[in-house]
């Protein structure tokens, strides 16, 4: 059995880390596997970077002005296909194929022609919409019947021109013609959304994302607090995002910083330089970090995670934080409640109701050590990367057996 994964990044970001975990798991099993990726180290043994400066920037231009995300990057995609011809994999496992690095019609034409088994993990909603990776903030459900007049043009992948009708029809035609397409939803919520899309009759499975429990576990709570000069009586509310914007709840933190008692302090990881300069004194901003150990130390040193995002297909940040022993407060939207509810790991609130959020923070800010350990154990048992990889491996095996028959 040979496996090739394809993802926008090699090891950074949540999808890159997931691809890496699967790669290591398969290596330990002695199974040949490779990763084709857009962004990451130029040369990585056994893997292929298809990044090209000029085609990436041209693809970005086509996407931003003509709504052509996934329709550029011909040369990099030919390079990926050449690699696939040489490896001749039994299964191609797709992750995020948008991001200005790959031409999906060309790739799917090759995969269909060669009758290759395809597993596709949906990490967002882009595969079944005319453009949008997320749509819940705008309450747009046009994707159920056919996208047009997009109300979400300014969000990723943003575009000046509305090409959503064309994109929707193209995706529907290409993806439905794939005979060996197996789709993975990473939450119950996303599973339900896919079942309402044009892909509803495809093979759809649910496999939760996994976190590395050898890295995300309760660290020394006092060490990080002492290093950053916090008092023992301070209640530290943490927010983590790769990009902070309105949809991720940036404004919620600003509002809360003015209404909670003085011993409530705020930490926001992932802010940019401009946001860092504009934060009030009681919010400590930290630039985005890829240092997992540092992030786990921050999680462990805080008292409660606040994840105001209303657009999550799983919620890796929530799972990571709870695995480190702090309870979480999440929005009652999309997949956000799943980690919390299934592990009894915090509270689910209406993020538009400031009083409800404040009451939750006042309650969970004083969670005792015994309960923190209990929620950490629950999350580590249900959402570990080992559990995730074993589930993917079982799927690989069943698909390989089905193919051989």
Automatic annotation (TrEMBL):
SUPFAM superfamilies: UDP-Glycosyltransferase/glycogen phosphorylase (SSF53756)
Official protein name in the record: Glycosyltransferase
Protein keywords: Transferase
Domain Glycosyltransferase subfamily 4-like N-terminal: 23-214
InterPro entries noted in UniProt: Glyco_trans_1 (IPR001296), Glyco_trans_4-like_N (IPR028098)
Domain Glycosyl transferase family: 221-381
């Amino acid at each position: 059995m040979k496996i090739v994964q394809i993802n926008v990044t090699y090891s950074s970001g949540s999808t890159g880390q997931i691809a890496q975990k699967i790669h290591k798991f398969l290596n330990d099993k002695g199974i040949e596997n490779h990763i084709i990726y857009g962004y990451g180290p130029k040369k990585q043994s056994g893997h292929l970077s298809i990044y090209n400066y000029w085609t990436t920037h041209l693809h970005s231009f086509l996407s931003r002005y003509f709504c052509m995300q996934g329709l550029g990057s011909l040369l990099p995609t030919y390079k990926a296909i050449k690699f696939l011809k040489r490896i001749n994999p039994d299964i191609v496992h797709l992750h995020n194929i948008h991001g200005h690095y790959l031409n999906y019609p060309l790739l799917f034409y090759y995969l269909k022609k060669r009758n290759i088994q395809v597993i596709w993990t949906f990490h967002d909603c882009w595969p079944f919409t005319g453009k949008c990776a997320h749509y819940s903030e705008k309450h747009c459900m046009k994707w159920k019947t056919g996208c047009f007049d997009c109300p979400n043009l300014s969000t990723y992948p943003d575009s000046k021109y509305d090409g959503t009708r064309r994109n929707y029809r193209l995706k529907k035609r290409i993806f439905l013609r794939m005979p060996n397409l197996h789709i993975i939803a990473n939450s119950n919520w996303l599973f339900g959304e896919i079942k309402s899309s044009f892909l509803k009759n495809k093979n759809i499975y649910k496999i939760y994302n996994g976190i590395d429990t050898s890295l995300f576990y309760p660290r020394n709570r006092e060490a990080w607090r002492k290093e950053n000069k916090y008092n023992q009586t301070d209640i530290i509310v943490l927010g983590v995002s790769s990009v902070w914007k309105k949809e991720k709840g940036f404004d919620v933190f600003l509002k809360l910083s003015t209404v909670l008692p003085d011993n409530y302090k705020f930490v926001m990881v992932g802010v940019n330089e401009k946001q860092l300069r504009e934060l009030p004194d009681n919010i400590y901003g930290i630039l985005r970090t890829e240092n997992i150990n540092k992030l786990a130390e921050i999680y462990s040193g805080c008292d409660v995670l606040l994840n105001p995002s209303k657009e999550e297909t799983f919620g890796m940040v929530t799972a990571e934080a709870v695995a480190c022993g702090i309870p979480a407060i999440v929005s009652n939207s999309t997949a956000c409640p799943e980690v919390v509810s299934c592990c009894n790991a915090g509270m689910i609130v209406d993020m538009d109701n400031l009083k409800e959020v404040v009451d939750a923070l006042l309650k969970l800010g004083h969670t005792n050590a015994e309960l923190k350990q209990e929620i950490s154990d629950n999350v580590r048992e249900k959402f570990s990367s080992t559990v995730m990889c074993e589930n993917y491996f079982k799927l690989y095996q069943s698909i390989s057996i089905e193919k051989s028959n």
